[in-house]
Amino acid sequence: MSTLNPPSALALHGGPKVKTTPFGTGRRFDETEAQELLEALEQNTLFYHHGQKVKTFLRHFNALYGVTYSVAVSSGTAAIHVALGAAGVSVGDEVITSPITDQGTVIGILYQNAIPVFADLEPHTYNLDPRSVEARITPRTKAIVAVHLAGAPCDMHALMQIARRHNLKVIEDCAQSWLCRYKGRLAGTIGDYGCFSTNDFKHISTGDGGIVTVNSGDEADYHATHAFADKNYRRFDANLRGDIPYLAPNYRMTELQGAVGIAQLKKLAGICEARHRYGERITQGICDLPGIAPHQVHEGGWSSYWFYMLRGRFAPESTNPEATQDMSASAVRGRLRCTRAQFSQALAAEGIPNTPGYIPHVVYLNSMFRRRHAYRGSHFPFDLSDARYEPGLCPVAEAILRDCIRLEVNEFYTPQDIEDIIAGIRKVATYYALP
Ligand SMILES: *Cc1c(COP(=O)(O)O)cnc(C)c1O
Fold it and tell me: In which element (H, E) is residue 213 found?
């Protein structure tokens, strides 16, 4: 199976398709969620502090993650904002994060009137390069938001050492990385705070929702984090209840989301294990191909593959002559004579859906950054900092977005679906391989 036989004609050119059966599908929600929802309604309250569903959801989450304290919130974006607020990130502080991520990673930074600073990435894990993080630290730096992209862990050992050396808080963005592990420890339990999303596209869904872990294990820290998601109301301490010491949003989770979350958490391990097996199998099936770099996971890391993203050494797109092949050559032998667009189309014609690219450009090239314009009619808080947002700032991240191809990994896929994905990639890469 792993030989480079002369391929049959590409489906793109009229040959037989690799994928002849439909991909496996399934239902995410069943009677378990329905029963929990019914019970939530029967409580006659949907307020998290009066009902039992959000509390139970968190108790199960805490047991699974081995943490003492966590707070339920309305989204992953909210989780990150709450962690920043609890960490004391405020006006004019700089927060270092990844340029390949969801907008939700940076929203909370700017709502705290702090300044996002982007560090470059490792070429094949697509996660923060600790050396680049350290190089971007200034006297204003207050925190690092470490995004564990696509289910795979950052180099947390190096990041934690840097953070401790410079007295920075570490917030883990685990929105895409449920049950992801780094050297035996669960991502989200290593930094000061871990942030999770249960939006409808993540491993598990409550429609929208999120969780923040408070890893200090300190009760006062937990109470401050809890209050930051609830208008700074102090629900646990009657003495503090009357006063609002500083601004905090309302990011409460409702009992309906908590109810669905209880049922979804029961399915989490199975979902992550299936995705892990499938992602690892794809790497094993394509790692010998010329011109293709598989999705790498750190030594000692465990990925729950929210998606699978490979890189190719493609011919430059004629419309984009700057798309030179600056992929770290060490990890890739050989090259391909097709452009990324041609490869993607050929793979799709074989019946293997794929996306050439991920987000349209690195986060700092969105116009809100290029024009330093978070709030309409103002350059605040960008004008408090020298941070720059321009092409070339993170060359590895920019190269990743130019030459990556993204494949869906799904727990409902069958093992045969994964073999077909591998066979499709092998056929197209072998056809386009340069001798
Ligand atoms: C989804 C996501 C978020 C935001 O989560 P929401 O629940 O959509 O607000 C943040 N960071 C990353 C990396 C994500 O993928």
Answer: strand 210-214
